Amino acid sequence: MSDTITKGAEAPSGDNTPKTSPEKKPERVASLWSDAIRDLRRNPVFIIGAVLVFCLLVISAVPGLFTDGSPTDGNACDLANSLQRPSAEHWFGFDVQGCDIYTRTVWGARNSIIVGVLTTLLVTVVGGLLGLWAGWKGGVTDSILSRFTEIFFSIPLLLGGMLIMSMLPWAGNALSVSLVMAVLGWPQIFRIMRASVLANKNNDYVMAARALGAGSGRITFRHIVPNAVAPVIVVSAISLGVYIGAEAALSYLGIGVQPPQISWGLMISDAQARFLDAPHVLLFPAAVLSVTVLAFIMLGDAVRDALDPKLR
Question: What global pTM score does this model have?
Answer without folding.
Answer: 0.80
